[in-house]
Design goal:
about 110 residues; mainly beta; seven-stranded mixed sheet; globular
């Protein structure tokens, strides 16, 4: 069974940065798509970014140029570097593998 554990969330002022980490219990290299989603209060879950096993990435328009997804296959870890954070980035951020396995989420709160 695949387990995903997120960390790195917290409270930050607008304009600040955070780096989220997601450690997987199994290899994340072979043919998997790793991703970050978020759910803001009162809203539906939305895609933030994904990264394929070949390194290809996709970003939501709202985070392009501010967020960067990356992975360290040796550590079975996926990262989300978040810069220039905005109040609207406040949400619970979830890590997923292939949209099948999900972590418990980590809270990101941006104060205006």
């Amino acid at each position: 069974q695949v387990r995903l554990l997120e960390s790195g969330g917290g409270l930050v002022q607008a304009g600040g940065s955070l780096r989220l980490s997601c450690v997987a219990s199994v290899s994340i290299f072979s043919g998997n798509v790793m991703g970050w989603y978020r759910r803001a209060p009162g809203k539906q879950r939305e895609l933030v970014a994904t990264i394929r096993s070949d390194g290809g990435t996709i970003y939501a328009d709202s985070v392009k140029g501010r967020f960067t997804i990356s992975r360290d296959t040796a550590k079975n870890t996926v990262y989300l570097q978040m810069n220039s954070l905005k109040f609207d980035d406040t949400a619970i951020y979830y890590c997923t593998r292939d949209n099948v396995y999900w972590g418990q989420g980590t809270q990101v709160t941006v104060s205006s």
